[in-house]
Amino acid sequence: MDGNDYLAVHAVAKWAAERARRNLGPTLVEYVTYRAGAHSTSDDPSAYRPREESAAWPLGDPVIRLKAHLIAKGAWSEERHSQLEAELRDEVVAAQKEAETHGTLH
Q1: What is the distance between the alpha carbons of residues 62 and 3, in angstroms, rounded to a whole number?
Q2: Tens-place pLDDT, residues 23-68
Q3: Alpha carbons 78 and 75: distance in angstroms, whole number
Q4: Residue/partner pairs of 69-75 with CB below 8 Å, 24 or more apart
Q5: What amino acid positions are annotated as catalytic residues?
């Protein structure tokens, strides 16, 4: 299963949970996913990945895919997305500042 497809992942997880609730036995779900980016800012994936490898995952970024789907259904908007990104960025920065009050590795 395409582990980069949020809607598919949600549907299968819901199905497996319902199967378990009905005592129909265990379910094994294999989510196949692709890490498109580098491990870190110091990592260069071109050193160990062929350039054409990402073409095997033609549907792209799962967040962008879900965003486009929700916008097409009228359940989301570019404006709301930008607003949420800003809210989350502020929350992460605040959490980082709070954590740094307890010390840093420097």
Answers
A1: 9
A2: 999 999 999 888 777 888 788 888 888 878 877 776 778 888 999 9
A3: 11
A4: 69/7
A5: 35, 39, 48
